[in-house]
Design brief:
Layout lengths: L1 H35 L3 E7 L2 E6 L4 H10 L5 E9 L9 E9 L4 E9 L5 E3 L8 H12 L2 E3 L38 H4 L1
Parallel strand pairs: 2-5, 6-7
Antiparallel strand pairs: 1-2, 3-4, 4-5
């Protein structure tokens, strides 16, 4: 019985802490909205995590604000997602995973991109750890990172045709095969 009571108290404490963290993150988002007016396009809360989607044109200012004013000192990860098969536009999202060591909070920041205008500004000058992540975003998805100090491929070789994590990249591609971007690419397999 004592073990179950202790376990229940631990679960209750964790649930209370999670609610507190979400509330604290939502306060960060509210301050972000006040500071940057209409920069925030969407706020999602799912499974105890908060995601804020911002406009591309204000991304660097938002990231600097999160680092300097809200104390999100660490960019833990950055990646991209290709939604080609799930929706028409915006096709891509670039996703940044932020960590505040000071406040023990995690926040996800996203930017949506149209397929014909797939680029983001670099955040390397704000978070140096972004350097390899941004190179990977370019290499794997073909999303340009404007202002990056060394934007070249990081996982594939320089002459590699295409960007292998794009949904229109051939599923069974082998070296020497051309990379064709057609609507039938998916239906063929």
């Amino acid at each position: 019985m004592v073990g179950r009571d202790m376990e229940q108290r631990t679960q209750d404490k964790e649930a209370t802490q999670a609610m507190t963290d979400i509330d604290r993150l939502l306060q960060v988002v509210e301050r972000l909205k006040i500071r940057f007016d209409d920069a925030v396009e969407e706020v999602e809360v799912h499974n105890g995590e908060v995601t804020v989607t911002v406009r591309r044109d204000i991304l660097t200012e938002v990231m600097r604000y999160l680092r300097d004013d809200e104390r999100f000192e660490m960019l833990v990860d950055a990646t991209a997602v290709d939604y080609l098969l799930l929706r028409n536009e915006p096709r891509f999202e670039v996703v940044y995973h932020m960590l505040s060591l000071t406040h023990r909070l995690r926040l996800r920041v996203k930017v949506r991109l149209q397929s014909d205008d797939a680029w983001v500004p670099t955040v390397c000058h704000i978070y140096p750890s972004a350097n390899p992540y941004e190179r990977e975003i370019w290499d794997m998805f073909g999303i340009r990172v404007e202002g990056h100090p060394n934007l070249k491929r990081i996982l594939t070789y320089d002459e590699f045709p295409g960007h292998p994590l794009r949904k229109d990249f051939p599923l069974f591609w082998q070296p020497g095969m051309p990379v064709e971007k057609t609507e039938e690419t998916f239906e063929e397999w």
